[in-house]
Amino acid sequence: MMSCNNSFPHFAESDIKCHGKLKLYPNGDWGLLACSRPIFSAGGWELSDKWDSKPSPRKKTEASAEDLDRARRRAAAKIKDIARCTPFRWFVTLTIDAKQIDRYDSSAILKRMRVWLDNRVRRNGLAYVLVPEYHKDGAIHFHGFFNDADIGIVESGTFRLMDSKKPRRPRSEAERAAWIAAGAQAVYNISDWGFGFSTAIAIYGDYNAAIGYCCKYVAKAQQKIGGRWYYSGGNLGAPVVDYIDCDFRSIAADPRSYQFTVDAAGAAFVLLRGRGSVDIAGGGGAAE
What we know:
This protein is an alpha+beta fold. 26% of the residues lie in helices and 28% in strands. The chain is built from 5 helices and 15 strands. α1 packs antiparallel against α4 (207-219). The model is unreliable at 1-14, 45-63 and 282-288 (pLDDT under 50).
């Protein structure tokens, strides 16, 4: 089992109910997080008054790196939940034109961007998840998902080829036809995005793989941009969550499970994913 030495809050015993948290997704997938202690409750985890928030300087430094990694994983998990429950159509990239907004000023960018996004949500039914990222020179751009809202998706005339990192423009109709036949993906622009350059590519192939590709931008981030790991809005879906009592040891014995411990909490955790009916040992029964 993988051990995770990090700070962890104590929980108010009155709120503790069960050992497992089960998430059910629209496509039939499910994920179960089980704990060796009954710490899950429908009302969430409550901090105990006994929690000591004053670790030694060395422990604080060590915990900070672990807390950062845990925060990134938590953000990526939330993005996955949203994307797996929302019918996104486009993988988008949005950049900033230095002539319009300071590309290095997160406050200035997000102020303008929030207005644009809010307008598209209210007027066009946009649903989105966007992950901010720094260019090598420190400028900010965004990657993420849009639904099929009418926000001016137009053909760019370029294609994404498997052997090319950048979109390319065919030199002739014959080459264009050959690229399409070979599986090249058409690259579109977002005409409503007036703050810089944009691309939109229809999500294709394994949807979960596309979600994982987007989450990699969170995984490699060293800090939040504008105070958040990602930005989201619109009519977003969420998994159905059920809190259940289950046998931790039986779930941990499943070879597909991923296990880890949190020493400060005195607890072990196991994550198990599957599809279809859920047969949970220890009183949880089955969920369809």
